[in-house]
Predict the structure.
Amino acid sequence: MNKYLTENKKIFSFDKSFSINITFSQPDKYKLLEKISHTSDNLINIGSNLSYSPLGFSRESLSINIKNFDRILHFDKREKTITVEAGLTLIEFLNFTLKHNLWIPQLPGYPTITIGGAVAANAHGKSCGKHGTIRKSIKSILLFHKTHGWLNLSEDKNKEIFDLTIGGIGLTGTIVSVTFELMEIKSSKFITKKKEVNSVEDSLKLILDESKDASYTYTWNRADNLSNFGKGIVYKNYLDQNLNNFEKLKEEKNQFKPFIFPMWNKFSINIINSLYLKLNKLTKSEKNENFLNVIFPFYGKENYFNFFGKKGFIESQLLVSEEKLNSFIEEFKNLFEKFEPTITLFSLKNMSGKQKFLRFEDNKICLTFDYVNTKKNLLFMSKIDNLYNKYNITPSIIKDSRISKEILRKSYNEELTRFKDELFKFDKKRIYQSEISNRLEI
Ligand SMILES: Cc1cc2nc3c(=O)[nH]c(=O)nc-3n(C[C@H](O)[C@H](O)[C@H](O)COP(=O)(O)OP(=O)(O)OC[C@H]3O[C@@H](n4cnc5c(N)ncnc54)[C@H](O)[C@@H]3O)c2cc1C
């Protein structure tokens, strides 16, 4: 490493759809961040690189990783506020706040995601029907921008840039620290209840009904073949109301390492799904679960992703209104019959909020599909893309690395234009650029 702590390395997007050799820099002091930012015309920020799409790097940009900025800068227990540096991971954050029976509930599903990455993606957790996205917990942000320097952002200061930065996929500069408003959490244990369902319609009814009282409601549905499409389980997590002592969350080494030979195919998915449902029948409908299992469901189950092999997978996450969901699913099934896609995961949850700029947020139902990365599946996905306009669907650009600029334009409409205009007004040189922002001409 040189004096700017700069290194070259080959990097992959989390879904393995894209890889390049990049230069990245890991400053350990704010002064160095300033200096490094002036060594390259184009820059982009990178956290733990757990975005499914290539959002934290590009051929032309120097990637700035602020993992060394991981301190808790200020904590006010009475006011329930905390200021942390953006390189802090979620598990490190929680290991501090949960000790005080405080947290933020909008936690994306993997513990080594950074605070900066979660804010730049406007991440949401399983309780997004109830708690919305992380935007709701952010009080202020300290941003460093190559030409504008240090900026305090909040509802009262630089409001426009505050708004652009949350969910702004790292294009407004480097988020250096974030102040959150914390919520009380009585215990870090959950009670999980589950119910079997036979269709997407039944799942929807339970989600809408049950989102009201449970902390988290979400589903696991089959999509391995047409005859059992939609069969599945609706889960409901409640916080255990008994006050209990917090136990430190254990940090494990990241286990993401794709298998040489992919393991997911129609046959294996069918077997695993059938076994999963059978096992479900044999187990109790109510059980106690620990915090990590509920909040970070893939932690310790990384083989789910490793099974896709080196070619990886594509995730599609879509926001569809409650009224249009059943008709959309009918068309989805018609296309499914024709193209027979290989889908490893299908899930539904309720989402709340307001769609603005590039944020994946709305008062809609959030559908998630994971596809094996094959030509046939890509063709099927392109047919589904064509339904976005008809059903007023918003896709996630954090998850789906395949989205084209036409699809983005059609689905985000004037919010995309507004985002681009505001961003250009703030930064005429458009310094911060990623592979995705280049592809989508943002
Ligand atoms: C297993 C798994 C489960 C997930 N579950 C969820 C979920 O439930 N809900 C959800 O919303 N998301 C989920 N995600 C996606 C994840 O929350 C986002 O992709 C998040 O941005 C990743 O954070 P990161 O630290 O890895 O950032 P990276 O992937 O490195 O970067 C993501 C974006 O943030 C920007 N960025 C990173 N750090 C900074 C910074 N300091 N300043 C400015 N910009 C910055 C980057 O430029 C990039 O645009 C999941 C991902 C995985 C792998």
Q: What stands out?
A: The longest helix spans residues 405-426. The mean pLDDT is 95.
